[in-house]
TrEMBL record:
Heme binds at residue 400. SUPFAM superfamilies: Cytochrome P450 (SSF48264). The keyword Oxidoreductase applies. Keywords: Heme, Iron, Metal-binding, Monooxygenase, Oxidoreductase. Transmembrane segments: none annotated. Belongs to the cytochrome P450 family. This is Cytochrome P450. GO terms for molecular function: heme binding; iron ion binding; monooxygenase activity; oxidoreductase activity, acting on paired donors, with incorporation or reduction of molecular oxygen. It comes from the Bacteria. Its cofactor is heme. The keyword Heme applies. Pfam families: p450 (PF00067). It comes from Mycolicibacterium rutilum (Mycobacterium rutilum).
Amino acid sequence: MSTTLDVRSLPLVPKNPLPIRQLVSLVRRLDTGQEVIRDAGGPITRIQFGPKWVYPPIVAVMSPNGMRDVLGRSDASSERCIYHDEVRNMAGDSLWVLPNDLWRPRKRALQPVFTKHNVRNFGGHMSGAAQAFVDRWPDGGDVDLDVECRRVAMQSLGRSVLGVDLNERGDTIARCMHVASSYTTDRALRPARAPRWLPTPARRKTRKAVAEMKVITDEMVRACRTDPTRDAPLVRALMDARDPETGLPIDDDDISNDLLIFMLAGHDTTSTALTYALWVLGHHPDAQARVAAEAAAIGDRELTPEDVPQLGYTVQVLHEALRLCPPAAGVARMATRDIAVDGYRVEAGTLVAVGLYGLHHDPQLWPNPMEFDPERFSPENVKARNRWQFLPFLGGGRPCIGEHFARLETTLALATIVRAMEIRSTDDFFECEVPLTTVAKGPIRAHLRPRN
Ligand code: HEM
């Protein structure tokens, strides 16, 4: 790692040449805005909205080396930022929002729960939820893939994370999550924010939404404490988790916060990944037929985590979907000291915007970046590629803890649905918005026909 002296000798990141007014609106468009910013200023570029005391300088990073330099560290120089602070203030201490020093013991306790092997103990519910989708449409018909996939993701997460069928409470959680996400992003992007103690209508609404979700997660933790036979393996695993260095458990309030954040971090993301993958297959009948054949070769029975090694092409399709439409279009960090990023100096106090969408769509890295081509993820192509070039779950010191779980869930769901249904997408575009993570902006229409 570079010394401070090295960093000081590096040039500052070049300033983006676009006019401020245009940059203000591009920064709010958290996915496609990145491409315009990158094309004008390069894959590492600086944006300054005025004096530093009004809003910190932003450095947008979209190059593989830049990713390595920012994400390869979880020390105090690449810290949580205003986004995380806002979520922490609203929803309490959870794995996602804790600053690095407080995060480390929590991560040590939680990591063993989310290993590739262990997620099979609580993550196999997606097949059942996907099968329920298939069963709702025995004769096929016109569907909104977004609505269906949200239902699938909520049903599966409810069972996996909380150990219950959420049923109508799923809608409450989805609504509350949307309120909380939109409020947080909006506040984080404002140059001037009302003080936190001021009870603005938006703040009151968000507090109420978070409280509604907390009722559900608190109730689950209490139920598991009082009933030792309750079937909720993830909640139990959190209760049993210990920091391997100190032996300390996680207290119940923090377990409840973590459950809430798993729902928040896991719902829209898996739902968008699945919706996009189905929509794109609905435009590519050949790739779709290959996924269907791969799943059919396993048989008619419910797919299980043990089947995933037989679903190699399905996984390639999912990777290509995650490249084209990364559910987390970008993440942010605060540089707490000067750091070297891709040959430039990023000064302490800079908001580092890590642009996954810009990285995944860079024509220098991905020929014909808008084209759907699952062969990009064939084992040989993956081996030949820079590992910092494809990061839907991030990488380095503080990646997504739910990665194995999400991969398992989406693979089983995609294979289950495509094995049973032929999909023809009727919308040419997948319109998105980015309240925090990327979600469909409106209905994603498709026609389903049962395969016999
Ligand atoms: C396709 C699905 C998913 C994608 C693309 C995804 C992506 C990401 C990304 C990019 C981050 C980094 C955020 C940041 O640093 O600010 C993250 C963090 C996180 N994700 Fe996921 N995620 C997915 C599913 C899930 C699921 C299913 C869960 C839980 C069951 C989950 C739980 C978390 C948590 C707790 C963090 C914070 C980790 C930490 O700071 O140590 N994610 N995810």
